[in-house]
Every structure is written in structure tokens, then in C-alpha cells.
Design a protein that fits this description.
The protein is α/β, with parallel strands linked by helices and 348 residues long. It contains 12 helices and 12 strands. The model has no long low-confidence stretch (mean pLDDT 94). Bound molecules: S-adenosyl-L-homocysteine.
């Protein structure tokens, strides 16, 4: 199988051109054709010479992803199931906010983190996605939006998979979509979400990039966190908080905690006190997120009333937090839901 052109970031593409006897600026031209004019065939890159187009056709692929399913929710959330060249399927989600349109990108086929509430982990990790496969998710959604003249403004790496378990490809993907000769999505509009892989957080801290970091906390004590997230048995809260203090000391970017609200599990008064203690003196926002229920899992989302109450109590305790709206709950919007259903129907 030929390598995908989308796997090359801007610098990689210019280097590739030079290494094969073409000019550096050809890399720039191709990059703009892909990400600004969004063509999906080398033959459409009409200002390239015939020999260069021929070489591209012979050496590389720019085949778009296959759309296996597309669901649109009442609130405008769109969920895509894409097929990859090896037959795997992945999910990508588009969400509308008042500040713009945000795409949620998948970083691995399946996930090994095993969070007990999550549908993604129903299917174990088969492989990492390449940076090109992540770029293509964004391009497929952007092309869908082009029909309405809408430009994506934000990217979150919060789809299936653990981004820091696929570190290099995720960073190359971010560099590609951030580059100002292409999509030019501002670094401050790109967020990477981790379940708390401490070595990844430390490595990311040293990069001094402007992307945002989100950490899936979901529980303010080791005991509860270990019940919800196996990763907490490897990296306890103290170690995690140390790494985050390091991140904050090296970067001037906003850090946020994600906290899904599970009825009777992590929305108790005890959790309010523990969260306040954990975040005291620490520059962090807590995003309270309604839980999208998953049929195979025994968790329920906190009621709207309980969510408001929890939010109020946290605010009173001095924790800065926001309560997020539910998106796409009339479609299979929970991470991994659409895919696991599709894969099961294919197997069965
Ligand atoms: N592995 C990374 C990124 C992928 S998960 C991480 O853990 O952060 C993205 C976010 O969705 C995480 O906060 C995850 O806990 C959350 N999530 C998983 N299943 C969910 C569900 N059913 N409803 C709401 N959020 C969910």
C-alpha cells in the first residue's frame, strides 16, 4: 500500500520534495492544495507539472476516507463513521457551540485504557492511527461543512483512543492542522485530552506548544478513580497532580479537568469537598459533563437538578467550573457507541 500524503506535515512534505529532486516550494503548493483547496486527487493539483503529478500518483495516495455512516442530531451534532484503508472503522464527531464548530478526533482504533463507563473500551485497541488518518477525519468534516460555507474553528483530540499512547502521531497531526499555509487552526483552539498518562503529560509540558491540555479526572480520590479508570492504579492522584504542577510551571496555557457526572457515584457532597481540596491553589477549570448513557454499562448520568446542585456547591467551595450541555443524545454520540454497534452488526 502506498503511503498517504496526509501523513506528512508541512516540513516533512518540503523535505520529501527535495529528497526526490523536486523543489521545496512544491511541498508548499501541495500542502495548500490539500488543506486550503481541499482536493482529493493529485490530478486536480493543476499548477503542478505533469512529471510531479505522475510521481505523486506513483508514490503516494490521497484517497479520502469512506463514509460508512453519518448521523445528524436535532442540535446539529454530526457523527461520522469512517472506514480506513485497512478495513477498520473509526468515529468522528462535529459539535456546534456558540464560539464555533468543533471536531472531535479519534486517535486510535479501539482503546486499551478500559475506563469502566466508556463505550470505546468495549473494543480493544487494534492499532494507533497515523497522523494522516487524523488529518483526514478533520478534512472529511471540513469538506462536509464547506457545502454550507462554514469553517471549523476548534479541534479536540477526545474521540476514541488515548492520545498520549500515540504521542508522536498526535503531535504531527496537530502541527499539520495548525500550520498557517493549510487549515491554520490556532494552537489555542486545539485541545488534547488524556486519561492521565503521567510520562505523556511530562513530555508534553516540555514541548512548550500552545495547545490546550485537558485531563479526564472524573474522581477526586484514588479509591473512586481506581474504580472508574484502571489507569489510576498505575498513576495515582499525587503523581498526576505533580505532573500537572510541572505542566503549569512550564506553560502559560489553560488546564482543564473533565468530570463526567455519574449519578450517586461521583456527584456526592464528599466529592465536592475532595475536589475543592485537590484543586485548591491550582489554576484549573473543571468541566462538568453530562454522561451519555451506554447500554452495556451500569452508570446513569446525574439528573439536571443534581448536576446544578453539584455545580453550585463546587462554586461555593471555590472550585472554578462549568456545566456543559448535552450534545447529540438522540444519536449514538457517546464515545465509541456508533462504532461498537456497527462492528457488532458486521460480526454478527
Ligand atoms: N483517552 C482520552 C481521550 C478520549 S475520551 C481521555 O480519557 O481523556 C474523551 C472524554 O470522553 C474523556 O473525558 C472520557 O472520560 C469521556 N467519556 C467517555 N465515555 C463517555 C460517555 N459515555 N459520556 C460522556 N463522556 C464520556
Amino acid at each position: 500500500m502506498k503511503p498517504s500524503i496526509y501523513d506528512f506535515d508541512f516540513d516533512g512534505l518540503t523535505e520529501l520534495m527535495v529528497a526526490n529532486g523536486f523543489k521545496k516550494f512544491h511541498g508548499d503548493q501541495i500542502f495548500q492544495w490539500l488543506y486550503r483547496r481541499r482536493v482529493t486527487s493529485f490530478d486536480d493539483m493543476t499548477d503542478l507539472s505533469k512529471p510531479l503529478r505522475q510521481w505523486l500518483n506513483d508514490s503516494l495516495s490521497c484517497q479520502p476516507l469512506t463514509v460508512l455512516a453519518r448521523q445528524v442530531s436535532r442540535d446539529g451534532t454530526r457523527k461520522y463513521l469512517f472506514g480506513l484503508s485497512d478495513g477498520s472503522s473509526i468515529e468522528t464527531v462535529l459539535m456546534h457551540y456558540d464560539y464555533g464548530d468543533s471536531v472531535c478526533v479519534t486517535s486510535q482504533v479501539g482503546c486499551n485504557m478500559g475506563c469502566t463507563f466508556c463505550a470505546s473500551g468495549l473494543l480493544k485497541k487494534q492499532r494507533d492511527l497515523t497522523s494522516g488518518e487524523m488529518c483526514q477525519q478533520v478534512m472529511m468534516v471540513q469538506k462536509d461543512l464547506d457545502a454550507d460555507g462554514v469553517r471549523l474553528s476548534h479541534i479536540v483530540v477526545m474521540g476514541t483512543g488515548e492520545p498520549f499512547d500515540n504521542y508522536d502521531n498526535v503531535m504531527r497531526f496537530c502541527a499539520t492542522v495548525n500550520h498557517d499555509h493549510g487549515l491554520g487552526i490556532g494552537a489555542r483552539h486545539i485541545t488534547i485530552s488524556t486519561c492521565g498518562l503521567v510520562p505523556g503529560i511530562r513530555r508534553f509540558s516540555d514541548e512548550q506548544v500552545q495547545y490546550n491540555l485537558a485531563v479526564s479526572l472524573h474522581a477526586p480520590s484514588d479509591a473512586l478513580r481506581q474504580r472508574l479508570m484502571p489507569v489510576a492504579k498505575v498513576y495515582g492522584l499525587e503523581e498526576l497532580m505533580d505532573a500537572l504542577r510541572y505542566y503549569v510551571s512550564k506553560n502559560n496555557r489553560r488546564l482543564s479537568f473533565e468530570y463526567i457526572l455519574l449519578a450517586g457515584v461521583n456527584d456526592t457532597d464528599e466529592c465536592v469537598g475532595q475536589l475543592a481540596k485537590l484543586t485548591k491553589g491550582f489554576d484549573v477549570y473543571v468541566n462538568l459533563i453530562p454522561y451519555n448513557s451506554v447500554k452495556e454499562k451500569d452508570y446513569a448520568s446525574s439528573s439536571d437538578k443534581q448536576a446544578m446542585l453539584f455545580y453550585d456547591k463546587l462554586m461555593t467551595a471555590g472550585v472554578r467550573c462549568t456545566l456543559r450541555q448535552k450534545h447529540g443524545d438522540d444519536i449514538d454520540a457517546a464515545c465509541g457507541q456508533l462504532r461498537s454497534r456497527y462492528e457488532r452488526s458486521r460480526q454478527g
